[in-house]
Design goal:
236 residues, alpha+beta, six-stranded antiparallel barrel
């Protein structure tokens, strides 16, 4: 089918929203240092036709979408639907967005009883940031690791622990940051308590018998999102 025989009605069959696809094309062209007119030419279409394709969506000309994706170094699915494993935070900022601080109690409420967070600890050349399964015990956070694993903080190490949640649809969310010291749990009764509190095994698998507790000295948090609501689903 040539450039003059496609109709907007065909776009109703599009698998992705035209606005989302247009944003991906613009973003990818910027990454590649490629002008949109040049991208169109390499994909075998005129700039005007590329505009129509972005206006009407992938159903307008599936073959042209495939060629455009190839020029941009993407699969058709990545261009049309977006990467399923892409990091969050690609949506534009919410209208009238604002940032508010969380109280300490609100921070602990968001941490809940368990989950996955990011641990920052000293490294040989630079700080390390690692994801860990955590368990909340009172006003501390504990996690399991191997005795000589990367997350095996030494007693007294200054560490930070962060948890967040992202709501891509609303461009909103929250984050909680603990700053404190690491302790190695060596009391058998305390170890049994943490095992009872833990939900499931560490996702990384393997033998992880060492419990490390993060004793916070500071607990801070913030929530970012549209001004029509305080709580968001995501971290900034």
């Amino acid at each position: 089918m040539n450039e003059t025989t496609r109709t907007p009605a065909a776009a109703e069959q599009a698998a992705g929203h035209p606005d989302d696809i247009a944003r991906r094309v613009v973003s990818r062209c910027r990454q590649l240092g490629l002008g949109q007119d040049e991208a169109a030419a390499r994909a075998g279409m005129s700039p005007r036709y590329l505009g129509q394709l972005l206006d009407f969506g992938p159903g307008f000309d599936p073959g042209a979408v495939f060629r455009l994706a190839r020029v941009l170094g993407l699969s058709r699915a990545d261009l049309v639907e977006g990467r399923a494993d892409a990091p969050p935070g690609r949506a534009p900022a919410a209208a009238r967005a604002r940032m508010l601080r969380l109280t300490e109690q609100e921070c602990w409420d968001r941490l809940g009883t368990h989950g996955v967070g990011r641990l920052a600890l000293p490294g040989e050349r630079f700080p390390l940031v690692l994801p860990v399964n955590y368990t909340v015990d009172g006003t501390t956070v504990a996690y399991r690791t191997a005795d000589f694993g990367a997350a095996a903080a030494a007693v007294g190490d200054g560490v930070a622990f962060e948890v967040d949640r992202i709501d891509e649809h609303r461009s909103s969310g929250w984050s909680v940051l603990l700053g404190g010291r690491a302790e190695r749990v060596q009391d058998p009764e305390a170890e049994r308590r943490l095992v009872e509190l833990a939900v499931g095994e560490p996702w990384a698998g393997g033998h992880r018998a060492l419990w490390i507790r993060v004793v916070p000295e500071t607990v801070t948090g913030r929530v970012v999102g549209p001004a029509d609501g305080r709580d968001g689903g995501a971290g900034p």
